[in-house]
Amino acid sequence: MTTTPKPKARAAARRPPSAVRVMSVTSGKGGVGKTNVVANLAIGLAGLGQRVLIWDADLGLANIDVLLGLKPEYNIQHLLSGEKTLKEILVEGPHGIKVMPASSGIQELANLGESQKLGLLTELDEFDEALDFLLIDTGAGISSNVMYFNLAAQDRIVVVTPEPTSITDAYALIKVMATKYQRKRFMILPNQVNGEGEAKAVFKLLASVADKHLDSISMSYLGFIPRDERMIKAVRQQKAVLDAYPTAESSRSFVSLAKAILRTPNGASLDGGVRFMWKRLLRI
Ligand SMILES: Nc1ncnc2c1ncn2[C@@H]1O[C@H](COP(=O)(O)OP(=O)(O)OP(=O)(O)O)[C@@H](O)[C@H]1O
Ligand SMILES: [Mg+2]
Predict the structure, then answer these.
(1) How many other C-beta atoms lie within 10 A of the C-beta of residue 4?
(2) Of 7, 165, 201, 227, which has the fewest beta carbons less than 10 angstroms from its beta carbon?
């Protein structure tokens, strides 16, 4: 005897696996350039026809809305309390990029009731199809808030500068992710470097220490972003360098970075997508 599936089950079966790539941009040390990387990578990806949502998960002060000159009215708290819908809390940034403004933390997500969690998932599900990338700007370090988002993402881009403290803190973050949370894949992005030689030296140093002390770690080199005065100037104008100075050296490397990321395999249908990330975040 065959049974007719319920309408909800039929809809779920029809839906293709999520292809949204969820990537966190993170670092051990603060102030290394994460927020700038997120903003410019988002613009680079948008220029390549990708639909991008930025989730500002950094609870610090230098947030993505400040960098992009946006003025968000609401944040995720309003979504969780049911006062606003997802569409209402999102802010439109340059090039059609959507921004989810920062809120006080992830703890409130974990504290939601089951029906609230499921309601949220349904709303996010609808959004899933209108998106190619979700970039998460995390805070620095190894606090539980940062870890939450890094665990929920499929890919982690670790931003690191040539400063010794930045390299040791990046290693500390990678070590905790690998040993405590079994996350073994990392994309490394040297920033504020003097050129390719320095970028590769930073990568090699990090990779060799990780290889020596951690089991089955995989680190990929994503290219690099040079130290560039125009990036500092753009920040002062509350603009991403890619918009303020499109021909600057750093702007060109952000375009290359976006292309490099598009070339990497999309594992979203296997272990990712927005729904999967939310399930992990909400611990369903
Ligand atoms: N490639 C670069 N060239 C020159 N200056 C840079 C570069 N990248 C970042 N900076 C400078 O570093 C500052 C900090 O960058 P950003 O706010 O993106 O770091 P962050 O890692 O997000 O910091 P936080 O940990 O506080 O969130 C920028 O305002 C800019 O002045
Ligand atoms: Mg930041």
Answers:
(1) 7
(2) 7
Q: Which atom of ligand 1 is nearest to the CA of 229?
A: 4
Q: So what CATH class is 25-282?
A: alpha beta
Q: Which of 25, 27, 35 to mutate to test the pocket of ligand 1 (most atoms within 8 A of CB)?
A: 35
d(CA 174, CA 78): 33
Ligand 1 pocket check for 72: Cβ under 6 Å: no
Residue nearest to ligand 1 atom 25, measured at CA: 30
3-state secondary structure of 137: strand
Largest CA distance in the chain: 71
Residue 18 has pLDDT above 70, yes or no: no
Q: CB neighbours of 262 closer than 8 A, spacing ≥ 6?
A: 45, 48, 50
Q: Is 257 in the pocket of ligand 1 (CB under 6 A)?
A: no
Please list the alpha-helical segments (H only) found in the chain. Answer: 7-14, 34-47, 64-67, 76-80, 86-89, 107-110, 114-128, 144-152, 164-181, 196-213, 229-236, 241-244, 249-263, 268-271, 273-282
Among 235, 237, 238, 251, name the best residue to mutate to test ligand 1's pocket (greatest count of ligand atoms within 8 A of Cβ). 235
What does residue 218 show for φ and ψ, rounded to 5 degrees?
Answer: -120, 125
| Domain extents in the chain | 25-282
Tokens of 30: 């603060």
pLDDT, tens digit, 9 for 90 and up, residues 247-274: 999 999 999 999 999 998 776 555 556 6
Whether the model pTM is above 0.70: yes
